[in-house]
Design goal:
This protein has 1138 residues and is mostly helical. The protein has 53 helices and no strands. It is 72% helix and 0% strand. Helix 7 runs parallel beside helix 9 and helix 46 packs across helix 47. It is globular.
């Protein structure tokens, strides 16, 4: 077939590839794809491709010509002279300069050129004379710099440099085209050493020249100018995200481990610009920072894409790491950033887009991080720092106003951008505030923080904190107009969790509040009082707009509670912030205590912190009254959730606090909330009354109930609190009502478990267990009835109670609770499972209990208890298998249920399998393989024989289930005695599972690693046996093929060293088992390579490693040595295959 005819075929298939789905069938499209794939595999394609390039203009064909050339260069490099490929580089460059091509075609041709350059550089590495690669890249430098050169050629030169950088920087998974990683890193370091800085200088020079161009022209000239500058900025982007791996800075120190560390790091685009010292000096001395600010300001007037590229370069440059530099260098770079940021913002702040605001906010964050590093702030000009911080606070305030405006307009997309900016800015302010606090607290250091007097910084903090609070409140106190709440239903539901969404911002703003805590607390208290009074008036009003008003006030209270939560509580839940302690030391204890007892926040001389808490208690009482009076519609779940979060933290921080060693204490707080205070029992009763009411009236709000019960559970940490709870009537009432009151049945499982955990800690065990025994007896009496749904519901409730009891059992309680209640309940589980088997929630509850009994109670078991537990576990699994057997196809819901059930089973069995390890530490004198271990193994093997036939592809799609299953199989493989009881068909199924793991595409690498470790264990056991059975060898031999294919298809592309070690050790163990025949077996398997010399080279290299280490795979030293050499062998496979 002539070239013209062949081209006509290609162009016809290209039309098919570009055709729309309604015009081209899938079969035709697949045929076209196969045609192009076959074309790319053409051997010695250079002449054909060069002919096609001259006679076709079809972009699709030209793209595949580039792909064909790429494959040809990689495949046939060793059979041709380097000069031929250098000529091809020049031809490709000339071709793109002389033809109008689509950008994707140019990129593919330049990728071919980059691969040629990389291999030329590797070929010429040790040559002293002038090299072709050096000539090529130097010519590209000249073309980019030369203002007299045609701009299209300069653009294409940039494209070539971009592809060379991308091919070398390893940000792409394919950037190691056809060469080993060792060779790849040599070229990378060569480029860094000889060319990268020159590329950067060339790019900066070209940008500087372009900045001076008078762009009055329009049309094509302007488009070309924009394109050229975008390419220059793209080069800068790549350099500013370059991974300078210092571990490989000196190639003579290259090791296997260091190369893999660098390989792992190079796969990740760097978030920081971390160059060597000489680069830092160049950037600072050449004033590159100022230049990029100027570029950004100029380019933003011309093109939005240039704007974003310049801004990205600027923000990435600002992340340059300076912690290894002296203080003057850090101060110079940071000062340059601050000075230019001030100039820029003053010039363009009114015209900034929100996209720019995000980048500039990130820039502020980078500068603040630089100021923090080794106290760089001390060495900067005080007036410059002050001006920068003044701008930071004003800029943040401006963005807050914009955020409020966007929220009012319901502009979600722009609001998200604004919020992202506020995250950066609030973190920046928190950094600066923490620095300032350190200086202000130390009288000797305070003078060093001379750029902002404390009084002025406090004024900034007050103003910004006030703005932040007002930005989230409605008018007139806040910035949000009332009209913005008319269609707001969010307050009615948990559409999003503001508490986590705004966590970073509120935490940062709370540090500002602590700069002038008294004013901040008074502000929050006044707002809370005002909103509480308005809320009460709203509930009583008959206005037509009552609903809108209620929504507005609920949103306001929600935000006051969220912000207050961070102001009044430290990051550690159990410690009162020191600033709070100091503030309350100045108050009148007697007046404050009286006001608290009377619930009167209007008195003078009340401690400001306690005044806020009195208002809070008023709101809690109001919520309780609304619920008790069946006015549930006026209680917002979102507000109630924020209130529950606050109550939980308040109880764990202020109420009966743990008496730890601290420098300062507050008599006021101790008098009001301490263990011995007159109010403490009343307050605990108050909170539990409120909790009981919420349980009764808001049980459907699962998240709220879980938060409330979690707060109570955390409160029981200390014995003093438990003693106080023991006397609490509300908790006693809850204990009595939980097992029998139908109103509590709607509470979630998590709540029931947490509450019974609390009951067990607080009350006598019999008071907790006896009602449960009666409840369980009633349940057993109804088991035979036809009320299946009722039985299932009741069982879930009882199982939750038992779960809570189990979690709270300690050694002193175990024997009584186990014999009285848990053991009889556990003995009946198999019978219950038979009845509730159609309800997956019940089934999961039983299997979860199995797991938790194993985790929480097995360490307390006697030998008799253990045997009972083992027998019941096997009975439960037998029963489970009976109704699950034959379920090979399932709908999505049922599949999800069965996967969840199996996960609990494998959690139990895996925990169960490790109990002998704990026994070793408890009683090391006991022989490890005792009767208990035999029972454990029996349970595990029996369980596996039950479960293995149930496993299928659908179940193993769940990664957690799959990993747990294969961990269990690995445990079984670790002792040869466990296989003695295996029937041959069972053992065959076991190996089929291992084979499945190695073959299946949906199995993750962690599971494949486990499968290879299983093979290693089996190989070592077979090798150690005096006379391996022929059947065992017959089973193991096919795994040679799987391992070899895995090495070539997956391992050579994998960066996972753990997986590589597992593959190597599995192969070594099999080789030792077949030490007479392994060479013949492997050569037969290797025939798929299709190239006899390559096949021989690979086999000889592998066999040499085996012979140098011997055939003693049971020796650890031999395995370690083989593992190291096998890794080197895999590294060199790239070279051997090419």
């Amino acid at each position: 077939m002539s070239t013209i005819e062949y081209l006509q075929q290609l162009e016809a298939f290209a039309q098919i590839m570009m055709g729309s789905p309604d015009q081209v069938s899938n079969a035709d499209r697949t045929k076209a794809e196969e045609m192009f794939l076959n074309f790319q595999r053409t051997k010695n394609p250079f002449n054909l491709c060069q002919e096609l390039m001259q006679i076709t203009k079809n972009s699709i064909v030209l793209y595949h010509v580039g792909a064909c050339l790429k494959n040809g260069v990689i495949r046939e490099w060793s059979t041709n002279e380097p000069e031929k490929f250098a000529a091809l580089f020049n031809e490709l460059f000339d071709y793109i300069n002389n033809n109008q091509l689509d950008h994707f075609v140019i990129e593919e041709f330049m990728l071919v050129a980059a691969i040629i350059f990389k291999r030329l550089a590797l070929h010429e590495l040790n040559k002293s004379e002038s090299s072709i690669s050096s000539t090529i890249i130097n010519s590209l430098f000249q073309l980019v710099k030369s203002s007299s050169t045609n701009i299209i050629i300069r653009i294409n030169s940039c494209c070539s440099l971009i592809q060379i950088l991308l091919e070398t920087c390893t940000l792409h998974s394919n950037s190691d085209h056809g060469i080993s990683w060792y060779s790849h890193f040599i070229i990378k370091k060569l480029l860094e050493k000889n060319y990268l800085k020159e590329i950067f200088k060339t790019t900066i020079e070209a940008l500087f020249e372009q900045k001076k161009v008078n762009l009055n022209s329009t049309g094509n000239d302007k488009l070309l100018w924009i394109k050229f500058n975008s390419k220059l900025l793209r080069i800068c982007e790549i350099i500013f995200t370059w991974n300078f791996n210092f571990i490989l800075h000196n190639l003579s120190s290259y090791t296997f481990i260091s190369s893999h560390y660098a390989k792992f790091c190079d796969k990740i685009e760097n978030n920081l610009f971390d160059p060597p010292v000489e680069w830092i000096n160049l950037i600072i001395e050449a004033n590159v920072v100022t230049f990029f600010f100027e570029i950004y300001v100029e380019f933003r007037k011309i093109d939005s894409n240039l704007l974003h590229s310049a801004l990205y370069c600027l923000t990435q440059l600002s992340t340059m790491t300076l912690h290894r530099q002296i203080s003057s260098v850090r101060a110079k770079f940071t000062s340059d950033l601050m000075l230019n940021t001030i100039k820029m913002c003053n010039a363009i702040i009114e015209t900034l887009s929100l996209q720019e605001v995000v980048f500039i906010s990130n820039l502020y964050f980078s500068i603040c991080n630089l100021l923090r590093i080794q106290s760089t702030i001390k060495y900067c000009d005080p007036s410059l720092v002050k001006n920068f911080l003044d701008l930071l606070f004003k800029f943040t305030s401006k963005i807050l106003m914009e955020s409020a405006k966007l929220k009012m307009e319901n502009n979600i997309e722009d609001f998200e951008k604004c919020n992202q900016s506020l995250d950066y800015l609030s973190n920046s302010i928190m950094i600066i505030t923490l620095i300032a606090e350190c200086f202000y607290q130390d009288p000797e250091e305070e003078q060093s923080f001379k750029f902002v007097p404390k009084k002025e910084y406090v004024a900034w903090s007050d103003a910004l904190f006030l703005d932040y609070v007002r930005a989230h409140l409605s008018q007139p106190e806040g910035f949000l107009p009332q009209i913005s709440f008319e269609n707001d239903d969010e307050i009615q539901e948990f559409e999003e969790d503001d508490n986590s969404y705004y966590r970073e911002q509120i935490a940062a703003m709370s540090t500002l509040a602590h700069m002038n805590l008294l004013q901040s607390v008074n502000l929050l208290t006044q707002l809370f009082i005002m909103k509480l009074q308005q809320f009460e008036a709203c509930i009583r009003s008959e206005s037509e707009k009552k609903q809108i008003e209620w929504t507005r006030l609920s949103e306001d209270i929600h935000w006051i509670l969220m912000i207050s939560n961070y102001v009044f509580h430290a990051h550690s839940d159990n410690e009162i912030p020191l600033t709070i302690v100091k503030l309350t030391q100045k108050s009148n204890v007697q007046v404050t205590q009286t006001a608290l007892m009377n619930g009167d926040f209007t008195q003078n001389d009340i401690d400001p912190v306690v005044r806020y808490f009195i208002v809070l208690f008023k709101f809690i009482e109001l919520e309780k009254q609304l619920l008790e009076n069946n006015m549930r519609q006026w209680v917002s779940p979102q507000v109630s959730y924020s209130l529950a979060c606050f109550i939980g933290r308040f109880m764990n921080t202020y109420l009966a606090p743990f008496e730890y060693d601290i420098d300062e204490t507050s008599l006021t707080l101790n008098a009001c909330f301490g263990v011995d205070s007159a109010n403490i029992k009343i307050l605990i009763q108050f909170f539990l009354n409120h909790l009981e009411t919420k349980f009764l009236k808001m049980s459907s709000e699962t998240k709220l109930m879980e938060c409330s019960s979690d707060g109570l559970k955390l409160f029981t940490k200390f014995n003093d609190r438990i003693k106080l709870l023991r006397e609490c009537e509300s908790l006693q009432r809850l204990l009595q009502r939980f097992p029998c009151d139908p109103q509590f049945l709607n509470l979630s499982s998590s709540v029931r478990r947490k509450m019974y955990h609390v009951f067990m800690l607080v009350f006598d065990w019999k008071a907790v267990i006896d009602p449960l025994i009666k409840l369980y007896q009633t349940f057993c009496a109804n088991l035979g009835s036809d009320q299946t749904e009722k039985i299932q519901e009741n069982f879930i409730v009882i199982a939750d109670f038992v779960h809570g009891v189990i979690n709270a059992v300690n050694p002193a309680l175990f024997q009584s609770v186990w014999n009285e209640f848990i053991l009889p309940f556990f003995n009946d589980l198999a019978k219950v499972l038979k009845i509730v088997q159609k309800n997956s929630n019940c089934v999961q509850a039983i299997l979860e209990l199995l797991f938790h009994v194993s985790v929480c109670l097995s360490s307390y078991f006697s030998e008799k208890d253990s045997q009972i537990f083992y027998d019941n576990a096997v009975l439960i699994l037998h029963e489970y298998a009976l109704f699950t057997k034959g379920t090979f196809t399932m709908d999505a819901n049922r599949l999800e249920e069965v996967q969840a059930e199996f996960i609990w089973i494998f959690k139990f069995l895996n925990d169960f399998s490790t109990q002998d390890i704990f026994q070793l530490f408890i009683a090391p004198s006991v022989i490890l393989y005792n009767s208990k271990d035999e029972s454990v193994d029996k349970v595990l093997l029996t369980s596996l024989s039950i479960l293995m036939p149930l496993m299928n592809d659908q179940l193993l799609e769940n990664e957690i289930l799959c990993t747990s299953y294969f961990k269990l199989l690995e445990y079984v493989s670790q002792d040869a005695k466990r296989f003695e009881a295996f029937p041959i068909r069972f053992f065959e199924s076991y190996l089929n599972c291992v084979e499945y793991a190695l073959k299946a595409n949906n199995i993750n690498k962690d599971v494949k690693t486990i499968a290879f470790r299983i093979l290693m264990e089996l190989g070592i056991q077979t090798f150690d046996s005096e006379k391996p059975s022929e059947e065992m060898l017959k089973f193991l031999q096919p795994f040679f093929q799987l391992i070899i294919q895995f090495i070539f298809c997956e391992l050579v592309r994998s960066t996972d060293l753990i997986l590589r070690d597992a593959v190597g050790l599995a192969l070594y163990a099999l080789i030792c088992c077949f030490k007479r025949d392994y060479e013949q077996i492997i050569r037969q398997v290797m025939s798929f390579v299709g190239d006899k010399p390559t096949e021989n080279n690979i086999c000889d290299a592998l066999f040499q490693i085996v012979k140098s280490n011997g055939y003693d795979c049971h020796l650890n030293a031999a395995r370690v040595a083989f593992k190291k050499q096998f890794s080197d062998f895999v590294n060199n496979l790239h070279v051997m295959l090419s």
